[in-house]
# Entry
Amino acid sequence: MSTGTTAAGGAVPALRMTDVSKQYGRGPGAVRALDSVSLRVARGSFVAVMGPSGSGKSTLLQCAAGLDEASSGTVHIGQVAVTGLDESQRAMLRRDRVGFVFQSYNLLAGLTAYQNIEVPVRLAGQRANPELVRELSERVGVSALLRRRPHEMSGGQQQRVALARALVTEPEIVFGDEPTGALDTGSARQVLALMRELTHRDQRTIVMVTHDPVAAAHADRVLFLADGRIVDEETTPTVDVVLRHMARLEASGC
Amino acid sequence: MLTLVRGLRRLGGNGATLVALVATATLLAVCGSMLAGGSTDTASTQRYAAAQIVVGGESSAVVTREGKDKDVALPGPRPLSAEVVDTIRDRVRGAGATVVPDIAARLAARSTKDWIPVTAHGWSARQLGPLGLTSGSAPTNSGQIVADESLGWSAGESVEILTEAGPQKRTVVGTVALPTGATPRQAAIYLTDEAATALARRGARVDVAAVGVLLPAGAPNAEDVADDLRTALERKGVVVETGDARGQIEFADLARARGDLRTLSGSLLAVVILVTLIVVGSTCALALSRRRREIATLRAIGATPRQMERLMVGEMAAVGFVAGVVGLVPASVVTKVVGWLLRAVGLLPHDFALALNAVAGISAVLLTTLVALATGWAAGRRTAAISPVAALASAAAGEQKPARWVLVLGVVLTVVGVAASLLPLVVDGIVGVAVAGGGGLLLVFGTALLTRPVVGALFQVVSRRLLASTTPHRWLAGAGMSGQASRLAAGVAPMMLIVGISLVQILVPASLSAAAQREAAAGLKVDHAVVAAGYGLPSAVPRSRDQHRPVTPVVRQQVVGVTTVLGGPETFRYTATGVRDRAGDLLDLGLRPGSTWDPTTTLGTDQAVLGTMTAAALGAAVGDQVEFVLADGTTVKPQVVGVFERGLGLGDVLLNYDTLTDHRSVSEPVGRTANLLLLPDLSRRPPVGEVVSAAEAFGAGGDAVSTGIAASTVPLFALFAYVAVSVANSLILSVTSRTGTFAMLRRIGADRRQLARSLVVEGLSVVAAAIVLGTAAALLPMVTVAYGLTGTPWPAIPSWFYLVVVGAVSALAMTAVVLPGRLVLRERH
Ligand SMILES: Nc1ncnc2c1ncn2[C@@H]1O[C@H](COP(=O)(O)OP(=O)(O)O)[C@@H](O)[C@H]1O
Ligand SMILES: [Mg+2]
# Structure
């Protein structure tokens, strides 16, 4: 699907945001949730976004993924300009070029793991290639669970299925909104390791919002957001370094 | 609508439960008010206002078989016998009271315009009012009358009255009015007592409609005298009333309507209670499944099952009570609407007021609280009793198996229902048919209880098929329905109830009407008949040159057939037909071989001809003696001289004309006047009444089926409204409970249109399942009843009715799915 961009080399980033602002409401009550954010995410990288509550993390993700329209600025996913697409074109974009992993409400309760992985392909009116699903499920470690329904799996296993679903369309980029937020430490670590592997070995691209320094430490790069702006960046994150950044942010916020 | 839905969503599961319970309280209060028999204000006495005590005939009689008594309803109050009048005189003589018998005859009168129904009283009865002369003088001979001022006739005017002999001239010599100046509810004229007695004569006796007791000033308490009279007149078939209740005697139609309303709502009560239990139960189950995670969490952090149970019961009791009180507001409106509908279809008199009854309202609040408590207890018990681990797991699964006793009860009801439905194949006559009708209800309820597993299995198949589709919205619908039996069943159950109940409810009346139509068409050799509204037609019809097919008077009367079943009396209500002179010329009865009666001769007073269904129910054959209670409570025991095929169309039993007219109730037409005249040719149309088709005159005209359907569905209006609210309620809850899932799907690339369409597919599947299940549940009795009544298996339910039910249910369900779906999908994520 994205072989064209691959052939063009690493020149085209998976995600490019230029001067993106997002304002909620009008007049005196307006909230500027994003303020001229510019950002490039290279293919094959694992980026974490951190920041205090209300700093604009979810808004950033929504604008980047084409869930919501930016008030100004441009967003590109691969070579596609997201800005200017209408509602249903953006839905198609998300279906074909973007993957999602959430904290909860992740899988459809009535469907098996296999059927859940298939969802985005089905939304496009196609059937998933069984070979591909099997390969993916092996890659994320759920190949033995394909016939189970969500309530027969642990949280970590469900989140792996969700990752497989996010990857099934071979998207340009995968977004995660606190994907490990609801998991116990052990499962969270395994899922994070898997995400790291997927970016490094398989050249997938992942942008993840998190408030967990341990999670952020698994990323290649951590962006710190405050009041709708990227105020800081760390390219060699460890738990300590991230904690220090956060402490500084929170101090200046007060 | 959208704001309402939004508000309900805020309230979450409890909002839906609240709505279900409010609707339940409304329904119970409405049914309770019907059971209480409407309000009394229209029925306060006018013409008996001056008599402190009024004695009238009972509208029932007692039949006895082998020492066991049974009360049977008569079509109107029985006239009072001379013996009763004498007893009253004896009893109150000591008190110095005046005893005034009201001799009354129902007939028609006119001055220059149309005939209008009036009651003719003896002049002495004016004291009961007391009515005062407003002009002119009292009648002094049989040619003079005094009329109600409200009739608009003045002294000196010449008018006509219509008796069995035909129109007769009278002169108005005075007018009277009520002392209150009110317009009389029933128009009346006053004759001399002698003339009234002559007019009100039926066979050997005179119709005394009531006796008024006027107590002198300073006389003992009216209640005491009344109690004394009650003791003296016990078992004489009379009622002794004082105060407002006197109106019940004066206005027999209102008293009868009240009785009918009670019978009607009493017979609906079981249906109503079962429906509310099923609806509240399924709504609660759905609402609880939404809160299961919360419950599981509480269990996990250490709440004991006992505490959980108490929490649920307490919460539901509170919600139930609030809902009960709130429900009284719509109840007062719905009661009025039901009253209006019942008046519109003629089941209640035009001035009968149906209003919310206080006792019914309070009972409804209490019952609703109880229902809420019970369902809260049942649901809470099940949810609370499982282990915390299992609770958390099943919270994720979102599915809980239905309770075993529900399934067992469902199977039992279904099996009994099937057995009952098969009865018409084995047992002839109305008994088998009636039992099958009841069996249909059991089948519908049984199926409703089994909805969960049945719907689960059904949707397993449907969702698997849909999941195989590559059309995204179909696939999405399949994904949404897969493993969601309880959510879907909660939507299907009330809808299948509405379909099933409406079919079963009209099944017997529609089949009977259709059969009656067919038999009347085959059995009537004349095309036209004359009928009159509220009065009798002259039976002394001038003979014409064509002696072979004269204009023929016919009397129709409700009688009660009595037989012995299991050592006690069993009774059936029948319509008896009496044909003056020879029935055979105008009716093709379809007499069965073996009949000894020659239809070209007049039926003797000790003879009866039975319709086949009547013969089957009474277990009688030619030569046997049968027992009937006539409208005035008299028992006759004629001999069966024939059995005929067309009983449903022409009358369940044929009796002698004079036997029937001589034993009418006091609310029926005077003397030997006819209820209808068969008209062999239009040129001999008499100058009274209205010409209609002969079939219509026999209650089997072209609109007989729709009239029958209206009569059996209108009383169910409140129930239908209730189920409609429940359907909408549970579907809205069902759709809005999936907000999270929709949000997720939207993010991973489902567009709004796909989701909206998938909801439509799901809605259609739910509608289809409900219609199929409801129809299937009613199908067996539909076929057997049709077979029992007509010999063919084709149900007599008209296709327009089925389409109306199906269309209404589909429209309702689709609205309840699509509108909240819109709302859920419009929200930003
Ligand atoms: N739909 C909305 N309408 C109005 N304000 C919003 C909306 N969504 C978010 N905001 C505001 O935008 C700011 C950023 O929100 P968000 O992106 O959710 O922050 P975070 O995810 O970092 O907690 C907050 O001040 C929040 O109140
Ligand atoms: Mg957020």
